């Protein structure tokens, strides 16, 4: 996981150990429950772990922050972010139970006390969150419908509470209803060609 250290050099010894264990853990669980395409396992450090950590380049989470990861799949972006921010609480949800089983097993193996994983639809999640993170699970209109009622009022970060969404390509049409959306190109933070069209989209949301 040298690629992680290249961009996040100030990791603790425990964080380094946790990141180094990720590839082996996902290789083991993916062989039993397919949550990542088989050909992608070898590219896990860049395409899944570092991609997830793109959110951290845009916004560093303060201790006590509550984050909801919607459609987490095998645990992305939630698991890498939970390693990076051990004092932030992460609630990882997906409607597919076998994916959440993998998330729970990985979180337990890494001793991530700040991760809660649940098989549930996003609309049914209770509670309020500073940010809702995700990796391109649906179009933005739909995603905002699912999540807009779950944003906490109290602000404590540079970016306003709302959505931090990892997505690639031309997003002009998809974001036409969100004039306050701000795009952060991941090529500004990471050199690998994988990130050429990848972005973090921030959409501030107020609870109605």
Description:
- This protein is of the alpha/beta class.
- It has one domain (2-204): Vaccinia Virus protein VP39 (Rossmann fold).
- The chain has 6 helices and 7 strands.
- The protein has a 7-stranded mixed β-sheet, with helices on one face.
- Helix 6 (140-147) links the parallel strand 4 and strand 5 (162-168).
- Helix 2 (13-32) packs antiparallel against helix 5 and helix 3 crosses helix 4.
- The model has no long low-confidence stretch (mean pLDDT 95).
Portion in strands: 15-25%
Structural class: alpha/beta
Largest sheet: 7 strands, mixed
Output the strand order for the largest sheet: 3-2-1-4-5-7-6
* Topology-level CATH name: Rossmann fold
Q: Helix share of residues?
A: 25-40%
Uncertain stretches: none
Q: What would CATH call the architecture?
A: 3-Layer(aba) Sandwich
Shape verdict: globular
What is the H level of CATH, i.e. the homologous superfamily?
A: Vaccinia Virus protein VP39
Euclidean distance between termini CA atoms: 42 Å
The Rg value, from CA coordinates, equals 16 Å
What is the C-level CATH assignment?
A: Alpha Beta
Give the integer mean of the pLDDT values: 95
**Helix-strand pattern:** HHHEHEHEEHEEE
